[in-house]
Design goal:
There is one protein chain. The chain is of the alpha+beta class and 423 residues long. It is 52% helix and 16% strand. The chain has 14 helices and 17 strands. Strands 1, 3, 4, 7, 8, 9, 10, 11, 12, 16 and 17 form an 11-stranded mixed β-sheet that branches. It has a two-stranded antiparallel sheet with strand order 2-15. Strands 5-6 form a two-stranded antiparallel ribbon. A hairpin with a 3-residue loop joins strand 5 and strand 6. Helix 2 runs antiparallel to helix 13. The longest helix is centred in the last third of the chain and has 42 residues.
Length: 423
Amino acid sequence: MSGGFLLSLAWRSAWNRRFTLVLTVCSIALSAFMLLGVERVRTDLRSSFSSAVSGTDLIVGPRTGSVQLLLYAVFHVGAATNNIRWSSIQALSQLRGVAWVVPLSLGDSHRGFPVLGTTQEYFEHFRYGEQQSLQWREGRRFGDLYDAIVGAEVADRLGYRIGQRITLAHGTSEASLGADHSDKPFTVVGILARTGTPIDRTVHIGLQAIEAIHVDWVAGAPLPGRHVGAEEARKMDLQPSSATAALVGLHDRAAVFSVQRQVNHFAGEPLMAVLPGVALDELWEVVDAGERALLLMSGLVALVSMAGLMSTVLAGLNERRRELAVLRTVGASLYHVVLLLALEGLLLTLTGIVAGAAALGASVLALGPWLQSAFGLTLRLGEPTPMQTWLLAGLLLAGWIASLLPGWRAYRLSLADGLSPRI
């Protein structure tokens, strides 16, 4: 018997029992979907985080954990334990080896999106991905005190255009009810091109604007009986008094550890400087246990699917005893019987894998925009990663192994029992 004939026979046999085998295929598809999906999310999550900032040699902030500093300075997640005095920001720029310093001020929001106060240098020096600079979809940089520049996701979700008037709020969206800055509205003057980073979900304003909206606030609350209007605030001294963190670039990257030591031993106030790449590695160590747990769960689902495949084929052997006995009488050997059921198992497994991969692709296309807008996670359809290839190969191998026991069992069935009519 040729291999092509056995393959055709295996396909026809499986098709005749398609209603019985469809649940097994669905189970294998689910396991493939989970295995590929977990690996895709893990890979794209790391890619999104790693591409969020590049070209920045150090992130400087108050003494805290390096991961916490990275999260709130770059990803705008969490809150700072303290601020950096403006005199310290100025001193940083005077350190030997420092090329530029971009201060960042956080703590306000707009309809759930974080507000970032910064300077014009932010748009010159900030890089993401493969040293890519920020590009404009439309508009320009700050020109007035109450100018705002929004990310692509903010503009798309809220339908903003150039000239749109917006109002900021103090604190996060949950904590900012009744604590808005509606007396000092801003005008959207620029929309940044999409980057796939937290920048897309950020509203940018100037550092002086941060000071302006808080001139009549103390300790996170408006001063009772005092109100400073928008035009009155323009006439006041709006020199920033502090910043949340700062991005630092160096003339020579070889001096990064020297500058880091200077910042960590800064005499003016307790500061710390972290390398973005090192902080990301620490973050992956934190989430590594979760990634392993998800992969383990997916592996258990695959194991259950293979057990289901084996059980289904074994349960169907009684119905196929005469079919297998006929094959034996026409000269089918142990090799042919085992190969027939192994090919059948491979076909079922391959069909389930294809269905699971197709379901994952459809899910990415359907849920990708929502995941991007809700969680800032960009999922991409592309070639399988090396890990995904190994997972698929392992799943296919498991399907073949799961078919060997039914094949051996089929060979052991008695030829006479298979041909004898049952009373």
